[in-house]
Amino acid sequence: MDESAGDPLQLHRAEPAHPVLLEQLHWLGVLYWTLNADKDENDPELEKIRKERNYSWMDVITICKDKLPNYEEKMKMFYEEHLYLDDEIRYILDGSGYFDVRDKEDRWIQIFMEKGDMITLPARIYHRFTLDEKNYVKAMQLLVGDPAWTAYSCPAAHFEARGQY
């Protein structure tokens, strides 16, 4: 993606474009699936993934002005570059948005996600999230174990876990 400070709700494609293949994301530890979002949590494929990867905790968040308290503040927080010490798993049930992740050379990769897309961002990867111009997403959040939503702003190189990444 380009490094401009433009509207985060817009696509930020570098010129010339440098498409990133799923294999490249996988090399960074980013996993991706396409599922049938109309089945929600009743999808056998989702259940299979949850069992294989031990995703035992689940909830659903709707991000839009009418549904998310302190919407503006939360959107700024989501878009601030950060990391978690645990994997971050998001399954888009409706709407769309962008996850941006840093590659090993510290360049941004913008990942457009829409209904049916599920992604796992590995612990320790710098990332951020924003909606697109539709300003709406409904996403399932999955975790191994209990939720521990402590985001660590960048730089976070002092964490041993970041050094392992």
What would you note in describing this structure?
- By secondary structure, the protein is of the alpha+beta class.
- It has one domain: Sandwich (Jelly Rolls), CATH 2.60.120.
- Helix content is 18%, strand content 33%.
- It contains 4 helices and 9 strands.
- It has helices spanning 22-27, 44-53, 71-79, 160-164, and strands at residues 31-34, 57-63, 82-83, 88-102, 108-114, 117-121, 127-131, 137-143, 152-153.
- Strands 1, 2, 4, 5, 6, 7 and 8 form a 7-stranded antiparallel β-sheet that branches. A two-stranded antiparallel ribbon has the order 3-9.
- The longest helix is centred in the first third of the chain and has 10 residues, at 44-53.
- It starts with 21 loop residues before the first helix and ends with a helix.
- The model has no long low-confidence stretch (mean pLDDT 85).
Instruction: Report how far the terminal alpha carbons are from each other.
Output: 22 Å
User: CATH first level: which class?
Assistant: Mainly Beta
Outline the low-pLDDT stretches. none
Structural classification: alpha+beta
Number of domains: 1
CATH architecture: Sandwich
Q: Under CATH, the topology is which?
A: Jelly Rolls
Helix content: 10-25%
- Let me know the largest β-sheet: 7 strands, antiparallel
Please count the helical segments: 4
